[in-house]
Amino acid sequence: MSAGYSPSTTAATEQISSTRRRGLAAERVSWEIDGRLILDDVGVLAPAGAVTGLLGPNGSGKSTLLRTLAGVQQAGRAAPPAIGRAPDELASSGAGPSTTFDGADLGALPRRERARVLALVEQDAGTDLPLSVLDAVLLGRIPHRSLLAGDSDADRAAAHAALTAAGARELAEREVGTLSGGERQRVHMARALAQQPRLILLDEPTNHLDIAAQLHAMRVLRELAADGVTVVAALHDLNLAASTCDHLVLLDGGRVVAAGPVGEVLVPAVLEPVYGVRVDVLTHPRTGRPVLSFERG
Amino acid sequence: MSRRWSSPARPGLALPVAALVLILSIGVAVTIGPADLALSEVGRSVATHLGLGGALGLEPLPTLRDGMVWQLRMPRILTAAAVGAGLALCGAVMQSLTRNPLADPYLLGLSSGASLGAVLVLLAGVPLLLPVAAFVGAVGALALALSLAGALGTITPTRTVLAGLAISQLCAAAVSFVIFWSAKGDAFREVLSWLMGSVASATWTSVAIAGGAVLVLGTLLALTGSVLDAFTFGDTAAAALGVPVNRARWILLIGVALLTGALVSQSGSIGFVGLILPHAVRLFTGARHRLLLPLSALAGASFLVWADTLARTVFEPRELPVGIVTAAIGAPVFAVLLWRGNHR
């Protein structure tokens, strides 16, 4: 594990504050629902201009972490950090949870301003209402304009640009309810892009998609990162993460068990205890990236 | 379904056309009734009462005919318009806020709760408090329905409707009971006019209360289009777009309850207007609210003006409670919407 990616260590903290690293830096994030600790002292570093993958088995806290980072977690409450640590030690470190982006405290930003910096793409967000794709994407402009204003030409231009970037331009006039899963995912991505965020958080953007649609979604993320956007995506498919991500954070039971470059996290010694399967790591003949093969443990 | 939901042919034209339809509907509806009046007579009476008679060189109507226009039909028809506008608006706001296509003040029990509040206050003999009591009743019913739905688990559309139905039936039974227990003579008629709705006894005071509430609260609600838009994909999506979800929801729901209370205190609980009109208007405007809200209000006003005109003329000289007419039109339309929703 490289030093920069080990969570909640003082070394990491000093490094952030001294260099004011560009990108997302969350520390000591804890969350509990009905007294059950869902996130326990989690730290995440996601550099700008890179795709950071959030991995972990079902129920490891990926979705909760994304929603907490986005400041939109509805149920539960922020738990006091570092359960089990002595109170005086906690006091001496003087540190509560913090989530900064490009050095600015995300939690302290007014909601609308935060929505201009950060966009969240949820899993399976749907609607029963008759809504055109263009209208759905224009929703992403809400944080950018007065609540009394209608869509300006600039809003429509931004929406069309977002549709193009997400590869959904030809869907603009369709009704959201008639789209396939892959098409709907592109529309949600476009809606997030219409917010023109510098940080985008995605909850399993490839869920329920066929392989072509998965690769398409990941390519859009790579292009965003190339434009300097900070991308954090929760992913289930480890091979997809291996082929696309720059950095990985592996969660298990609400704690970070590994974080760092792809080659350091996707190794049998790290994965096998978390997923309870046997893992073989091969090397892709063309890209040189890891390719994983699994067997029951 | 290949039609373009997003762009009605001329969005800028929809509102003026709907407003014109409403004004014509009101004018024509006043002429319809046991004694035939001409549209020009209606115009003369209105102009005279607005103090424009002299300027336009118009003869005042004979007292009897003028009274028919200005004292009998006009208050009733304007009250119907205000109630229709307000209920359609409330329905549209509730449907978006709860993401429930079945949400409407009638179905979720707000109207019955408001009726109960109104009837209790009339029983106590303080008619001045009527709108306030109706508001308290509406808020109480809403709070009960939502907490009952919440007690069943996650608040889903189905649970909300079931809870609303229970509260609605309970309040309706209480209204009937209170009237039967207290009233002498023609209690059936009074029960019906609260439970099925009626604007037959509307006066200019009713116009002031219902119309004032629609102008003030309705305008405020109609301006919240962007906030309601943000709720399209749910609470989390709304929060991610910078909307303070809980605060927005409570403020808007209380606004809806206030408006419902003011309307029901004048008309009793009229069903299906808030449920059907927003769905019908969405067919033209799509799901976004900037046009949907004002257009629903205008269409709801015209709809209830005509429903009430039918209610008082079809079985002349007997009058139907207007809720029977709205249900007779609304229930089949609702069935069609359900059927289409299934085949989407």
Automatic annotation (TrEMBL), chain A:
Keywords: ATP-binding, Nucleotide-binding. Residues 1-18 have a biased composition (Polar residues). Residues 24-278 form the ABC transporter domain. SUPFAM superfamilies: P-loop containing nucleoside triphosphate hydrolases. One of its GO terms (molecular function) is ATP binding. Pfam families: ABC_tran. Residues 1-24, 77-106 are annotated as: Disordered. It comes from the Bacteria. This is ABC transporter ATP-binding protein. It comes from Promicromonospora umidemergens. The lineage of its organism: Bacteria, Bacillati, Actinomycetota, Actinomycetes, Micrococcales.
